[in-house]
Amino acid sequence: MKRNLSLAILTAAGLLTLAGQPGFSAEERKGPPKSLDKYYPPVNRQRPYTLEMLELGRLMGSLTMDVRALPPKGGKNPAIAKEVEAFAAQYEKVSAMVPEWGPYFPKIVVANLKKAAAENGERATLEPLMKEVETNCTHCHVRELFRVQALYHWPRFAKVAAKNARDEEVPFHDNMIELSNRMSALPTSVARGDFDGAALHQKEIMTQFGVLEASCENCHQEPREYFVDRVVKGELMKMGGLVKRKVADQADYKKVIDAVSARSCIPCHQLHMPAAYMQAQLDGK
Ligand code: HEC
Ligand code: HEC
Ligand code: HEC
Known about the structure:
The structure is a single chain. This protein has helices spanning 3-14, 48-68, 79-97, 107-118, 123-153, 172-191, 195-215, 230-244, 250-282, and strands at residues 161-163, 169-171. It is elongated, with a radius of gyration of 27 Å. Helix 2 runs antiparallel to helix 3 (79-97) and helix 6 (172-191) packs antiparallel against helix 7 (195-215). Strand 1 and strand 2 (169-171) form a beta hairpin. With 285 residues, it is mainly alpha-helical. Strands 1-2 form a two-stranded antiparallel ribbon. It is built from nine helices and two strands. It binds heme C (3 copies). The site of one heme C has 25 residues, from helix 1, helix 6 and helix 9.
């Protein structure tokens, strides 16, 4: 992928504000059922749904290991029937927590597993049944897990406040657009020989980048090294130096901007944008 191209695409996309987007259909805005709300902050800080899922995973894992430890034929382990009972009870419990998701928890697969275990089933009988259960777990995870994470575990990007040039609080999104537009405009000013205009852009880029850096604290308690590190800031300062020395060669600016994109903008987007945009979509923006 050509890095300078990606930045150009980003900037073009940035001209659309999130709020002004054409809007999502009701289907696209359909997030996880509202009955999940009560298992997450602010309603419940213990996150019981997460904890019960982890317990389901634990029971499933230890059962799987005990089944695998059976000899291929004729082996028995009476403890397995008990384990299956405990697993089935937890399966039932988790499935009842979100009634709308009932169909994701087919009763028949677990009933078959229980029957096989009660009859002291062999490894060759139990393993395919376990596999079937596991396939159902993943089926729901693939569709729902990430949306739950974006909605209930990630803080909302839309609520992260940033400062604009007049020291007013603006949405994080506005800060991104301003930063991006200024970075695009600076080389254009240089090309016109307008070094005062370029210097103004440079000043704003440094300010907006500082605002971006400060925004990490909204979600991260400890400072993060990536994306806003010394090397990235060094590149941005280099751009200031070019403007000050009235360097006119566009290639020099492109080099710096590409380096910043590759080290800051793009990787940080790859990490944070999926959650941010999933939130925006489910919030109907
Ligand atoms: C936290 C890491 C992070 C860094 C570093 C970062 N961004 Fe962003 N950026 C985001 C997130 C998250 C979004 C989406 C959320 C939003 O815009 O509301 C975003 C959105 C954008 C958008 C809006 C895109 C669109 O689809 O409308 C632009 C433009 C943008 N960033 C440019 C940049 C540029 C240029 C840089 C580098 C100088 C940069 N960003 C650095 C996290 C980051
Ligand atoms: C109806 C959908 C659904 C089904 C079916 C389901 N899960 Fe989950 N599971 C979830 C969701 C949603 C989360 C994320 C919860 C959260 O992060 O708060 C999750 C999280 C988990 C986690 C924690 C994973 C992590 O890294 O966050 C484990 C372990 C787990 N599930 C095990 C299982 C097992 C084992 C089964 C099948 C026996 C199963 N789940 C069936 C929806 C489902
Ligand atoms: C709206 C909340 C939010 C903002 C703002 C935000 N992050 Fe994150 N970031 C997260 C979440 C959630 C994760 C997932 C893992 C975690 O919780 O650490 C994450 C993961 C990361 C990771 C990888 C895992 C780790 O914890 O080191 C890095 C690096 C990172 N962010 C850097 C940054 C930087 C740098 C900024 C500011 C430029 C920033 N983030 C802004 C929410 C945010």
